[in-house]
Amino acid sequence: MREKAKDAYTGLEALLVFPDHGDYVATLDLMRRFSSAVRYGYKRLLEGEDRKELKREDGPLCTLFRLNTRYADDAILKAKALLTSQVELGENPRKVVFGGRKLLADLARLKRSNLPLYERKKAEWRERRKGTLYARGDKSKKGNPHLRLVVQDGSLWLQINLGEKRYAWALVKTSHPRLQALLSRVYAHEPYNVELSLREGRVYALFSWEEELPPLSLTQEGGVLALDVNADPYGLALAVVNPDGSLRRYLTLSLEEVDRAKNRGAKEIALWRMAHQIVSLAQEEGVAIATERLKHLPKGRRGDGSGRRFRRQAHRFAYRFLLGKVHALARKKGIQSLEVNPQDTSTIGMLKYAPLLSLSKDVAAAYVIGRRALGFKEEIPKPLKALLQDPSFHDRTRRFYEGRIAQLKERHREEKNPYLKRKLRRELAQMKRALATLPSLQGEPGGPAGSTAGRNPQGIHAWRALRVGLFLPLLGRKVPRDLSVLKPILLGSWEGWKGGLDPHPGGGSAATDAHLRVGVGSSG
C-alpha cells in the first residue's frame, strides 16, 4: 500500500500559432535536438553516468545537441523521470521504446498490408520521437526563463529561447477555464512549467504548476471508501470499510453514461461527474479513498483470438482516467487517497467474502481492497486450507484439466478456421497454466508479509490454486456470477460436499452440473 503523491499539479493545454514560419521551423529544430538529448541522456543514466557531468557546458548534451546547460538539465530531468516511472511500474527500463511500443508494433504490422495507414502511423511515430521540448519553471527567474509567457496588446504570447540570444514567438490560443489562473501567475512572476509537443504538424503547449493543497482532514483512521472498477458489467463497486475491517455499506455505480458519451469532451464531463460523486460519498462517510494500483491492462487486438466482445469491453474501459480524477479531486478536498497492490483482490473476494456475506464478486473485491488499505492480511479460511491438502480433491481437479486439455488438442487439430484455431490455442495455453498451478493444492499455504498469504515455497499462490480448482471444474465458469454454492465449504461442511463429487470429471456434464451436486452433498 502507498499514498498517492502529495504534490498536485494542475494546468492547461493550448495551441501555439506562429505568425513567422521561420520561427516555426526553428522551434521544430530545437524540439528535435531536445528529444534526441532526452534519449541520449536516458541511455547514459542507465549506464550510471552522473547528471552533473552530462549537463556541463562542455558535456555531451550541450556539445552534441547544441543546447545550453539549462535545456540540457531539463532533458536529463525528463529522462530521469521516465527511468523512475519504469522502475516503479516494475518494467524493464532497458526495453523502453521512445515513440511508443504499441505504435511500433502497429508499424511492423501495417508495413506490407496497408501502406496509406502505415505512412500516417510512421508520421505519428516520428512526431512522438522528435517533437518534445520541456522547460521547468524557476521562481528566481520570475516564471520560466526559456519558455516565457508574455502579455502584449491584450494577447498572450510564448517567447521561446532558441539559444545564442535568438527567440521565436508564438501566439497562445486557448479558452481553458484555468487561463485566468495561469495569467495570475504570469503577472505575479510565479513559476510554471512548459512542455511543447508536436501532433499532426501543430505545436501544443502544456502549462503546469504546483497547486497548494489543503491539509488532510479525512484519513484512513476513520475507515476507507474502496473502489473496484469493472469492465463487465461496466461500472464501479464501492465498499465503505470500518477501521476494524468490517463492512459498513456498499453500492454500485454504472459507467454506461460514460460509454454513451458522444465525444471525448462529453466522456470527460461524465468521468468528472462520477469522480465528484465518489468524493462526495467519502466526505459523507468521513473516510479516506482507496483504489488498486493498476498498470496497463492488455486490451487485445483483432485476430489475436481474444474475441470481439472482450476487445469491445476492454477498449472502453476508462479505469485509469477515472481513478486519476478521483485521486486528484480527493487531495483537493483534503481527503487521503491510497493505492494498494491489486494482486488477487478479485480472487480473494470471490473465494472468501462473496459466499459468506452474499456479495457480488465486484463488491467483494472492493471490500478486499479496503481491508488491504487498512493493513489487514487475508488468511485462507481453515476449511479451504483443508481442501488444499485433500488428495482426492487434487486428483479430481487434475483429471478435469487433463481431460479439458485433451479435448482442446483434438478440436485444435481438426479446426480449419485460423481465427478459431488461434482462440483454441489461447484457451489451451490457459488450461496448461492452470494445470501447472495445481501442485500447490497440496502445499501448506503461507507467505511473506504483504503478500496475499498464499505463496508456497515453490512460489505459487494458493489463492490462485483454489480458484483453478473450484471455479471451472466445480462451477463451470472461469469467473462465475453465483458464488453462493461455495458457502457450505466455507462453513466447514466440505466433507459432506466431497462425498457428492463425481469420481470421473474431465469435462462435459461433470463440469456444468457440478454446482448442482454441491448443494445436495452439503445439505446431507
- Count of the separate structural domains: 3
Indicate the multimeric state.
single chain
Q: Residue-averaged pLDDT, rounded?
A: 82
> Looking across the biggest beta sheet, what order are the strands in?
3-7-8-2-6-5-4
Spatial separation of the terminal alpha carbons? 43 Å
Biggest sheet descriptor: 7 strands, antiparallel
Rg result:
28 Å
Shape: globular
Please report the number of helical segments. Answer: 21
Helix percentage: 40-55%
Write up what this structure looks like.
Strand 4 and strand 5 form a beta hairpin. The chain has a seven-stranded antiparallel beta sheet with strand order 3-7-8-2-6-5-4. It is of the alpha+beta class. The radius of gyration is 28 Å and the shape is globular. The protein has 21 helices and 13 strands.
Task: Describe the protein's topology.
Layout: E1 2-3, E2 8-17, H1 21-46, H2 51-54, H3 60-65, H4 69-88, H5 101-110, H6 115-130, E3 132-135, E4 147-152, E5 155-163, E6 166-173, H7 179-188, E7 193-199, E8 202-211, E9 224-231, E10 234-241, E11 247-254, H8 256-259, H9 264-285, E12 288-292, H10 308-315, H11 319-332, E13 337-340, H12 345-357, H13 361-373, H14 382-388, H15 391-414, H16 418-437, H17 462-475, H18 487-490, H19 494-499, H20 509-512, H21 514-523
Parallel strand pairs: 9-12, 12-13
Antiparallel strand pairs: 1-13, 2-6, 2-8, 3-7, 4-5, 5-6, 7-8, 9-10, 10-11
